[in-house]
Amino acid sequence: MDRNPSDPGRLQRAPESFVDRDGVRTVFAQARHGRRDFIRSAFAAAAAGAAAPLALGQSNPVPAAGGDPNILELPEHSKGLGQPVATDGYGKPSKFEANVQRRPSPGLTQTSQSSVSFAPLQSLFGIVTPAGLHFERHHQGWWDIDPSKHRLMLNGSDPSLLKRPMVFAMDELMRLPSVSRFHFIECGANTGMEWGNVAVPTVQYTHGMLSCSEFTGVPLRVLFDLAGVDYKRARYVLAEGADGSSMTRTIPMELVESGEVLVAYGQNGEMLRPENGYPLRLVVPGVQGVSWVKYLRRIEVGDKPYGTKDETIHYVDLLPSGLHRQYSSTQEVKSVVTTPSGGQVLLDKGFYNISGLAWSGRGRIRKVDVSVDGGRTWRAARLEGPVMAKCLTRFNIDWVWDGKPAIVQSRATDESGHVQPTYRQNRSVRGTRSIYHNNSIQSWLVQESGEVKNVQLS
Amino acid sequence: MSSCRSLVAAALFAAAGAALAQTAYPGIGRAATAPEVAAWDIDVRPDFKGLPKGKGSVSQGQDVWEAKCASCHGIFGESNSTFSPLVGGTTKDDVKTGRVARLTDPAYPGRTTLMKASTVSTLWDYINRAMPWTAPKSLSTDEVYAVTAFLLNLGGVLPDDFVLSDATMAQAQSLLPNRNGMTTDHAMWPGGKPRKPDVQGSACMKDCPVDAGHASLLPDHARNAHGNLAEQNRLVGAQHGADTTRPAGAAVAAAAQPQKPEPPAALALLNKNGCNACHTVDAKLVGPAFRDIAKKYNGQADAASYLGGKIRAGGSGVWGAIPMPAQALSEADARAIAQWLAEGAKK
What is the complex's ipTM, to 2 decimals? Predict the structure, then answer.
């Protein structure tokens, strides 16, 4: 192996923070010229790698004599006294689950305060993300803020845009009538590393800036009504965080008027986690995560968009024409198979439940199709209910693996009729340098060895 | 239910005005005072609404820059060691046209802040609310004007003798290289005109055309670049994680044990006390690498007590001109970190 230890082997670098200029140049050059083999050769490689026989692992081996010792010899936990209640006042996952963690992608950012950790989608079931595994994106580090000192202010860019500016304490916000709703949150840069070519190995890193929770809070409209907002003139809303970055984003008033935008303090039955904005964050269903301002301290209503740092310098989508799309907010229809997925190994031939997640910022998922032959043939998957608007939807479909190379894909359609595009379709319009809003169909190559690899067809 | 109540609230508004509206949720919220609004309402809009009066020259900006900005962003705003470069990639022609020509060149690596920024208000607001990175909101209004002026001067946008002020911001805006480089004409902005999505997939179910042309895969040498994937998957399940410490196709290890890395306690303390904002273990960031500190004091008998004192007191000169401010961490934490440094700063 002549691997250079300083070269982590990625083909394209970080979405926002580039590493070194030479590295970036190399990466771009590689992306243009190399690393692209005929899909046939990918299949060939897959077949070649399978010289080893399939016997990869036996989770339920045929016993040699008499039977399985796990059955015949009673284990300790069947013969002894277990642990008492409240051994741990806040229970934790089994020690055998320690591999299931949110993780950063090595080399993606140079500081760990302005960085990302990705949710382990490959290990999650259903649609709810456990709060401790929720993806993180901080711009200037996270804080654990004393809720008794936290305040929310409402004001106007011009005093005439509301009857009176107001201040709320957490106690007061939590006295108001609350709603609880399930919604996904996805970073606009999710899958951004993959715009040019395959760059990361697993679904955790390709799609893990995605989480889904039940959020509890107060519709922002209720607070606007209390403050007497002039909805005719105040067509834009600025949300601002209390942390060092004081994140600010513009939200169109239509979304608030719909009643969907929440000032939220609850997440999956408990308070928000500090990494997710404790004690108060904005929930803007269907819109990219950066607009879900954490540590929410102030909301301003105005008559024009704000052109904030995270909608003018970051989170702008570069087009081939050299123009940037500004205020790109809606997360469009998207899906991904989470099992089997990159970096995993199928242990044997036979039955598998292909399972994944689908979502759209434009409403409900209407349909998910799954292909195991690289997109030539598609079958409709089962959608697990309830199918909720702007929420993750779990899909499943039966599959019997014959031990031959397969390319597994999923393709979602939302209730607006928008169908998830391929990489070729996306790149033909948006190019490869957008960073943001990559909703292309994901392909997983199952090799004869059983090992699953991230591949792109285009 | 809540929507009904807010509808009622809205109706009350319409009927009786603000006085009655408060009765919808009596006792909730109060009027913000003028000083409170002034303390928090710091945003500046592209039309300069919210911009405070003040001024700063390019040369004043250079002083602030070298003291408070250059350690991360480089003397010329070119550094990519901590963040993406701020300056570079724009030309005199761009200043004339308001479009950065290099953005059309797919071979040009990366994008600097000045290649993207379309509104000068954004630069001002960014610096004012979020910079310097480890001490946001610590610059005076005039310093923000000065630093913004210096940054634009580094990019060849403003001349050396320019004084940026609330009165000259519009002039700076008219010279911004990418001022005409944004579009909101797309379907992803719910505040814009209704648009159809620009890319639509195919609903084909059978004998569909496939992209059989090219494939992109991670090269073999990157197999383990994200760590051992066997340790990033559950121990049981339909699939197990691939052992990426071994070549592709090797048999799966029978029963991998859960791997919870147990890093030295000092690493957690570095996180807890924010040391990582300026230092990393292996590489120089704002301050020296911990490993370099360990090397320098290797074998020095009183290294632990000396370093424990330095961490709390701060200092400058040993590792260059950038001072390390005094740190408010507990003596116990400082001692533990110093001990870890004295023992070689192992991960």
Answer: 0.87
